[in-house]
Amino acid sequence: MDSRKFRNALGQFPTGVVVATARTPNGELIGMTMSSFNSVSLDPPLILFSVHRGTLSFAAWQSVSHYAINVLNEDQEQVSNRFARAGGNKWEDMPALTSPSGVPMLPNAAVVFECTSHARYDGGDHEIFVGRVEAMHEHAFTRGRPLVFFEGRYRQLASAATAHAPPPEAELLHGW
Ligand SMILES: Cc1cc2nc3c(=O)[nH]c(=O)nc-3n(C[C@H](O)[C@H](O)[C@H](O)COP(=O)(O)O)c2cc1C
Predict the structure, then answer these.
(1) Residue (of 102, 81, 114) closest to 29 by Cα position
(2) Which atom from ligand 1 is nearest to the alpha carbon of 149?
(3) Selection from 116, 111, 113, 121 nearest residue 132 by Cα
(4) pLDDT 10s digits, 75-93
(5) Ligand 1 centre from 165 Cα, in Å?
(6) Which of 29, 23, 40, 18 is nearest to 119 (CA)?
(7) For 138-174, how does the pLDDT look when each residue is reduced to its tens digit (9 = 90+)?
(8) What pTM was computed for the model?
(9) What is the radius of gyration, based on Cα positions, of the chain?
(10) Count of domains observed in the chain
């Protein structure tokens, strides 16, 4: 498998961008930008993301029982870059909100999923983390325009005016 070709092919699949955030058992704040976030199950409510085994914070991610998935808005490119840099204190001068269960969360995220660690699976050079969603925090005033990652670059959704009209009799496309 030509890994460059494989990466380029994967880049044809647009994703959103999230920052996973947590506090380790010894009190350190960690955070990582990820595009591997996805939904898994509605009942129970499960999500997943995968963490590269080579990241400096990999062992710290394995140690946490709670974390938050912060879905970034289109104006949070700098936040994405800050939490994508290896090492250093990614939280320096960054205000953290704290959930009732003590999980650090980013202000102004489109939506935050507060999770408990449900399972971890082997994913080759990554480990797949499955989280159970315990609470959601939505900031109505910032909602609606997510940061998009496509072909290795940040993108913005076109305006709502160019979106396809919803099917008249169904509110959800094919039931989704
Ligand atoms: C848009 C974007 C998406 C990313 N997605 C992932 C991902 O899904 N999994 C992952 O392990 N790293 C991903 N990364 C890279 C990590 O953010 C980066 O390696 C990490 O922050 C390094 O942290 P460290 O200090 O633990 O080494 C992504 C980076 C960017 C810019």
Answers:
(1) 102
(2) 1
(3) 116
(4) 999 999 999 999 999 999 9
(5) 35
(6) 40
(7) 876 655 789 999 999 999 998 766 777 776 766 667 7
(8) 0.94
(9) 17
(10) 1
CATH number at residue 146: 2.30.110.10
Q: CA–CA separation, 66 vs 81, rounded Å?
A: 23
Q: Which residue has the tokens 């609470």?
A: 135
H or E stretch covering 102: none
For residue 152, list its beta bridge partners: none
Tokens coding 1: 């498998």
Q: Does 21 contact ligand 1 (Cβ within 6 A)?
A: no
What amino acid occupies position 33? T
Mutate to test the pocket of ligand 1, among 21, 29, 35, 57 (most ligand atoms within 8 A of CB): 35
- Any atom of ligand 1 within 6 Å of the Cβ of 73: no
Task: Please tell me what DSSP assigns to residue 142.
Answer: G
Long-range pairs of 117-124 with CB within 8 A, sequence gap ≥ 24: 117/64, 117/65, 117/66, 117/67, 118/44, 118/46, 120/62, 123/50
- Tokens representing residue 74 in the block: 């289109």
Q: Which domain holds residue 131?
A: 3-175
| Cα–Cα distance measured from residue 34 to residue 152, given in angstroms and rounded to the nearest whole number | 12
Amino acid at 66: H
